[in-house]
Amino acid sequence: MITVHHLNNSRSQRVLWMLEELGLEYRIEPYQRDPRGLLAPPELRAVHPLGKAPVIVDGGLTLAESGAILEYLAAKYGAGRLSPAARTPEHVRYLYWMHYAEGSLMPPLLLKLVFDRIARDPMPLFIRPIARAIAARVRAALIDPQLKLHLDYLEGELAKSEWFAGAGFTAADIQMSFPLEAAAVRAGLDAGRPRLWGFLERIRARPAYRRALERGGKFELLR
Ligand SMILES: N[C@@H](CCC(=O)N[C@@H](CS)C(=O)NCC(=O)O)C(=O)O
């Protein structure tokens, strides 16, 4: 049986969702983030040297990196489901979004998380105004315009088809869900971008998504 090393409020939620979509049996090995630093506990390093989630163990294979895990599961267990046929235009789009989610969209969202926390978290009184001024400047000059650029782009892309790779729901939508859920809590994504908002509403209504939430526990993305 597949084991998912699952960190609360993390990217491993989308692996649970993928497994539910495929109707596979799996067990969850749960980990809790350190409430102060938000890092994973050190025990996760015994599973994979980076100590990050998700990691799956399937027989003799230990695999990290959510995009690789989703592609592995689709190839091994999908029997044609959740990934478009090779050498089709949909498959090229599928590949693009699979890589874009972590490679292009997550970096500004992570910067947003870090700089918002610098501005908000307790710190010695004498450095607070300086730290806040630097954080405000980086957000205004770099992070917020980049996030707007990405979200506007994505809103336009969803005008082309209902799902990211085309007319059919695929693992690329599962991969894109995490940054878009993160954008909803930390980057102002709301009903003002109706196609992206509709995407979030559609994925949240999927029975497999809901079952994954029940199995994975509370899912409150960091802000
Ligand atoms: N690109 C990797 C990112 C993995 C990652 O950074 N995971 C976060 C959870 S969302 C994590 O484990 N954070 C805790 C830590 O870094 O200690 C993936 O998509 O799997």
Structure description:
With about 220 residues, the protein is α+β, with helices and mostly antiparallel strands. Helix content is about 55%, strand content about 10%. The chain contains seven helices and four strands; from the N terminus they run E-H-E-E-E-H-H-H-H-H-H. It has helices spanning about 10-20, 65-75, 90-120, 130-155, 170-185, 195-205, 205-215; strands spanning about 1-5, 25-30, 55-60, 60-65. A four-stranded mixed β-sheet has the order 2-1-3-4, covered by helices on one side. Helix 1 (about 10-20) links the parallel strand 1 (about 1-5) and strand 2. Helix 3 (about 90-120) runs antiparallel to helix 4. The longest helix is centred in the middle third of the chain and has 32 residues, at about 90-120. The chain is globular, with a radius of gyration of 18 Å. The model has no long low-confidence stretch (mean pLDDT about 95). The structure holds glutathione. Glutathione (GSH) binds next to loops.
Strand content: 5-15%
CA radius of gyration is 18 Å
The profile of the biggest β sheet is: 4 strands, mixed
Q: Based on CA inertia axes, which overall geometry fits?
A: globular
Helix content: 40-55%
Instruction: Give the count of helical stretches.
Output: 7
**Ligands and ions found:** glutathione
Ordered list of secondary-structure elements with their pairings:
Elements (H helix, E strand, L loop, with lengths): L1 E6 L4 H11 L3 E6 L23 E4 L2 E4 L1 H12 L11 H32 L7 H30 L13 H16 L7 H11 L2 H10 L7
Parallel strand pairs: 1-2
Antiparallel strand pairs: 1-3, 3-4
Helix pairs in contact: 1-2, 1-5, 1-7, 2-5, 3-4, 3-5
Bound molecules: glutathione.
Glutathione (GSH) binds next to loops.
